[in-house]
Q: What sequence folds into this?
């Protein structure tokens, strides 16, 4: 009898041990992002080591697609943190109530121009300008001055030279549409696009097609393309042979560029609230911010973050970029795109 009692106690102890949580299990922090997210493995390991956590990333499409998935899962989130909503979709995320409030102490280090959400549901992480990029060799070879403003693009000498992306299917395409709305107003932007169409504008669906197929620097027929002000340093960094100068440059005249700001936030309903706060703080730390430029070719919002030399030498930011209130974008985005399509694609 005594033996049976001992066996029973041993089995009970084994069952309890199997059911009990393992205290030595490493917690997991899940971060959902858009498909373009990238950061150095060394930087991720730094966070994991400091906080004894494993960070898992899930990529859920482009910005609009990722935001929509986060909204559909609001309160029962797919992850703990979401990074990648930009100012063209910020109101969609805020109205969808996907984030919890978190006033990171790191916000004190950021310029007010980046703090578009005063409620601190969405915190700024990085920014960049969407501009016309120029193939310098084409203009030098043809003895043609490079354009500097949106108005310049309507001149006869720039006919059949510009390729843009469809704003319904492309983030930079939407950003450039917003630049024209910010510059010419809701009453004038369609007239501007009609004039571009008459001047030989080409429209494609995505950035890759515009840049790597149609842009003359990569063998296409168009020496003007909608891209990012960080594209010129990328051309230098990824060149097969060392370059003394960037082969492209950006058109940054007043009103020519739209400034994109990307945000991160703690997803409502997370079970890892404390670690999520730590991750947000880490994204705004010097090590993460200084890693951003050469990973995603964006600019850090932390002013003290040092830029790589390629950015200093070749990346230009507009002194007078277009900024449109994110709530106004949310109210009118679809209407603006439909009106654009009716005017440009007809």
A:
């Amino acid at each position: 009898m005594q033996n049976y009692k001992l066996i029973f106690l041993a089995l009970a102890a084994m069952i309890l041990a199997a059911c009990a949580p393992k205290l030595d299990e490493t917690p997991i922090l899940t971060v959902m992002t858009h498909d373009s997210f990238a950061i150095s493995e060394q930087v991720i390991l730094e966070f994991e080591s400091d906080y004894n956590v494993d960070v898992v990333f899930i990529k859920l499409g482009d910005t609009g697609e990722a935001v929509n998935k986060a909204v559909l899962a609001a309160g029962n989130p797919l992850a703990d943190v979401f990074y990648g909503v930009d100012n063209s979709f910020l109101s969609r995320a805020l109205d969808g109530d996907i984030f919890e409030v978190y006033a990171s102490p790191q916000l004190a280090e950021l310029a007010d121009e980046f703090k578009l959400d005063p409620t601190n549901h969405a915190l700024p992480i990085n920014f960049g300008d969407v501009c016309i990029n120029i193939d310098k060799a084409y203009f030098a070879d043809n003895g043609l001055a490079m354009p500097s403003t949106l108005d310049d693009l309507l001149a006869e000498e720039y006919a059949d030279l510009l390729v843009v992306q469809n704003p319904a299917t492309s983030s930079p395409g939407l950003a450039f549409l917003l630049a024209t709305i910010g510059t010419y107003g809701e009453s004038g932007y369609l007239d501007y696009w009609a004039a571009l169409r008459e001047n030989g504008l080409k429209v494609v669906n995505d950035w890759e097609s515009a840049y790597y197929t149609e842009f003359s620097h990569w063998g296409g027929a168009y020496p003007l393309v909608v891209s990012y002000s960080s594209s010129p340093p990328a051309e230098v960094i990824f060149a097969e042979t060392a370059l003394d100068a960037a082969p492209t440059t950006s058109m940054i005249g007043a009103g020519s560029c739209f400034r994109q700001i990307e945000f991160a936030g703690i997803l409502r309903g997370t079970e890892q609230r404390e670690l999520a706060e730590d991750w947000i703080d880490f994204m705004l730390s010097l090590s993460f911010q200084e890693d951003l430029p050469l990973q995603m070719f964006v600019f850090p919002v932390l002013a003290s973050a040092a830029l790589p030399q390629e950015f200093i030498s070749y990346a230009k930011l507009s002194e007078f970029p277009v900024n449109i209130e994110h709530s106004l974008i949310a109210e009118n985005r679809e209407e603006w795109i439909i009106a654009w399509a009716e005017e440009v694609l007809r």
Remarks:
- The chain has 13 helices and eleven strands.
- The domain at 128-258+316-344 is CATH 3.40.190.10 (D-Maltodextrin-Binding Protein; domain 2).
